Amino acid sequence: AVGLGGGHNAFVNVLVDVGLVGAAIWIAIIVGTLASALRLRKGHAAARRDSLLIVAILVTMVVNSLTMEALAEVGSMSLTMLAMLIGWLGTLHRAERSLSSA
After folding, report:
1. What is the distance between the alpha carbons of residues 23 and 45, in angstroms, rounded to a whole number?
2. Taking burial as the number of CB atoms within 10 A of a residue's CB, which of 2, 41, 48, 56 is the most buried?
3. What number of other Cβ atoms are within 10 A of residue 26's Cβ?
4. Coil, helix or strand for 73?
């Protein structure tokens, strides 16, 4: 209402916009993505390489979100990249399952 802009912190913006439940879900998505990428470290060489890249991108986005609210803004490039990382992880997990069953 005062016109000062956003909180310049992704967590603060999520907390203000959607409350504690939404912030918990947002944190669960980020932690779950990180845990899923770390689980792939024990897979094949290509999956290990991709998982390290995903972890690096995710950590960079989280650290960047300490001073910029992009990871919490609808339609931002950071949020789009998070969705792409989750899809990438899903594809890697599916490939790992098909390679381990073959």
Report:
1. 35
2. 48
3. 19
4. coil
Mean pLDDT of 23-43: 92
Residue 82: how many other CB atoms lie within 10 Å: 19
pLDDT at 91: 93
pLDDT tens column, 61-75 = 999 888 888 888 878
Query: Do 26 and 14 contact (CB within 8 A), yes or no?
Result: yes
Q: Tell me, what's the pLDDT at 5?
A: 56
Q: Where are the alpha helices (DSSP H) in the chain?
A: 10-39, 45-64, 77-101
Q: Cα–Cα distance between 55 and 60 in angstroms, integer?
A: 8
